Amino acid sequence: MPALPAGFEPFVQLVDVTATSALVAWGGFHLAEQDGRWAAAAHGETIGARSLPHGRAAVEAVDADGVVVARATTDRANHVWVEGLTPGTTYRYEVTVEGAPWGRGPRRDWSPDGLRPASRPPDQRLTTHAGEDRPEPVTFLALGDFGVGIDEPTMGHQQLGVARTMQRLADTLPVRFLVGLGDTIYHGAGGKLERTGAVDDDWWVTFFQPYRHLLDHLPFYPTAGNHDGADTEASDDRGQLEDNLFLLERFGPRREVGRASLGPGLFYRVQVSGLLELVCIDSTWGREEGHHWFCDDDHQRWLQQAFADCRATWQVPFCHHPAWCAGPHHPGMAEQVEHLVPLYGQADVRLLLSGHEHNLQHGRVDGLDYLVSGAGGKLQLDPPDRFEEAGTLTWAAEPHCLLVQVDAEQLIVTPYGATPPGGQPRPVVRRTPAGELTDEPIVIRR
């Protein structure tokens, strides 16, 4: 591997897994000091599906006995699928570029005081999904509206605290993957979103740095939010989202077997065991303002089929905009209630996950529980004010993520707040509309 520049920070990424394969990527950022702070410096495409190859590369999957069971090579990209793995099995993976391990030297983490030695080495594990006939319990983490970057003085601490919570939970529980509820990246201090995710440099302190010790061993399943397109921002970040999250490389093969509907719009299904299937729904604007991608005929046909033939015990749709919301700033999306909720009812969907409103809300409408989780880094302190129409049961104004535990009999959702340095994760204390307090998990039973 060619010697890396002094200001280059490498990383490895477990992009996705299936029951028999894994998509592994590698890349890095050129860092420079700007206005007294270290940040990613413009240096072309060094991350994502379009990045220029760093050299001839190989990825090997190694089993528990230290035996290499699968190997893939490439000299045309900085990512590759490794095939021939066994369902429900944990492996180590190794990335070499020009014969040398990628990113194994001293690494650095960003901090407000500058760059410091990384808190831990890469965790290059991967666990394939269980076979669709295996009813294995599943645990995952979800969050939405991640924040504007950990270099922002106030919200940055919130985002970093939630990332720390996720890391602690993943260290102690069998967390298998991450689910993003939209607005993955938008960056700017003082409310000015001048760095929105439209170029690679924006992704360092907003995504790859705060979650780097998760992304190296946990796949991330995203949905699109209003800040990921032109709904809210002048720039449309879809192309960058597609590139840096490898959307076509991951979901293109699923589209060919009817498990995704893409271009434009982002809809896909991931069955992770016989107990759970995730369904990503794109709730952003479509071809014109006010028209949503899920209303398009092609996507509607795909959605009808997706909710008609699920074989998993639990089917959990997730999107950015909530179908119901108590506010205070965003209403529920009536178009979802009209076009999507009837499909959920026919499929006996019991849980819906979304973001967008920058707080935490748990509600129930006609037997369907929903979570609004839009405070992964951004936070709205004003209280909601439409409890009755939203079916609100509890809410909180606290930065948080969701721990979701799935077994044959129940779904358990526990919101966790931001964790300070040296602390341990604590469940969020939620408030009922009547003012009563609870930190009990949310339990949804068959």
Descriptive account of the structure:
The model is unreliable at 189-193 (pLDDT under 50). The strands form 7 sheets. The protein has a 6-stranded mixed sheet. Strands 4, 5, 7, 8 and 11 form a 5-stranded antiparallel sheet that branches. It has 2 domains: 8-125, Immunoglobulins (Immunoglobulin-like); 131-445, Purple Acid Phosphatase, chain A, domain 2 (4-Layer Sandwich). The longest helix is centred in the middle third of the chain and has 18 residues, at 155-172. It has 9 helices and 27 strands. The radius of gyration is 21 Å and the shape is globular. The N and C termini lie far apart (53 Å). The chain has helices spanning 155-172, 204-208, 212-215, 238-244, 247-256, 297-306, 334-339, 341-346, 387-390, and strands at 8-17, 21-34, 37-40, 57-62, 68-74, 79-83, 90-97, 100-101, 108-111, 114-117, 125-127, 138-143, 175-180, 220-221, 260-262, 266-271, 276-280, 314-318, 351-354, 360-365, 368-373, 392-396, 400-406, 410-417, 430-431, 437-438, 442-445. The protein is an alpha+beta fold and 446 residues long.
